[in-house]
Amino acid sequence: MAVVKKIIYVVIFLVVLVYGALFVTQNSQSIALNPVLLPAAEYSLSTVVILAFSIGGLLGMLFSLSMYLKSKGQTVQLSLKLRSAEKELSKFRTVVVKD
């Protein structure tokens, strides 16, 4: 099963690599870009598009990481509260009820 999984990953990687190479060759025209903090220059269209998607993906992962860490912290806090409540409940279960 692990061999099949590796073969599938290799095939997917090769397909993405071929599509990337086709994208770069089909979009090789230059465009003038004037970034705010960088000097104006001409870049290939494929470079600009790939950089834009890469930066967007990295920013998305960064924001997702912050949300994940926040939820992980809430989970830790709630598990501590649960543990405390379970200890308190076990104390009450051991107390003898007097009538």
List the topology elements:
Elements: H1 2-26, E1 30-33, E2 41-44, H2 45-94
Antiparallel strand pairs: 1-2
Give an account of the 3D structure.
The chain has 99 residues and is mainly alpha-helical. It is built from two helices and two strands; from the N terminus they run αββα. The protein has one domain.
Number of contiguous helices: 2
Q: What is the terminal separation in angstroms?
A: 65 Å
Strand order of the largest sheet: 1-2
Q: How does the overall form come out from the CA principal axes?
A: elongated
Question: What's the alpha carbon Rg, rounded to whole Å?
Answer: 28 Å
- What is the H/E order? HEEH
Give a quick set of tags describing it.
99 residues; 2 strands; 76% helix
Short description:
This protein has one domain. It is 76% helix and 8% strand.
